[in-house]
Write a structure and sequence with these properties.
about 120 residues; mainly alpha
């Protein structure tokens, strides 16, 4: 008998239940992961990394104008996915953890994004 591995979103739900996360958290994380996958044209998240997460989060902030709390929720959903479901260590993601941009002028935020992209290029070379 050939058993298939459950789909990624089912795995996400299963791990969240196993770790006793609330149903509300599960219902908020699953749609964010789905949006992330569709944003990248249904690419497998195991083949994506911190740069892809960054591009999705930037899209949410710049094009969708989501609030900081919404942005953090999307970030937390993706961090949970990569850390607990895919079990991929995204060290470079810690360079871009959402900070309250109200405290910083825009040019500093842009400088941080450039630094992140340079760091990412060095890792992939």
């Amino acid at each position: 008998m050939n058993k298939q591995q459950p789909k990624l979103l089912d795995q996400l739900s299963g791990v969240m239940r196993l770790k006793h996360y609330s149903l509300k958290t599960e219902k908020s994380y699953v749609p964010w992961v789905r949006r992330f996958i569709f944003f990248h044209n249904k690419r497998n998240p195991q083949k994506m990394g911190a740069f892809d997460i960054q591009s999705f989060l930037s899209y949410l902030a710049v094009n969708q104008h989501v609030a900081a709390s919404t942005h953090n929720q999307a970030l937390n959903a993706l961090v949970f996915l990569y850390k607990h479901v895919i079990k991929m260590n995204l060290v470079q993601l810690t360079l871009f953890v959402h900070e309250d941009r109200k405290d910083y002028p825009l040019f500093l935020y842009v400088r941080k994004l450039r630094r992140f992209s340079l760091f990412y290029r060095e890792l992939t070379i």
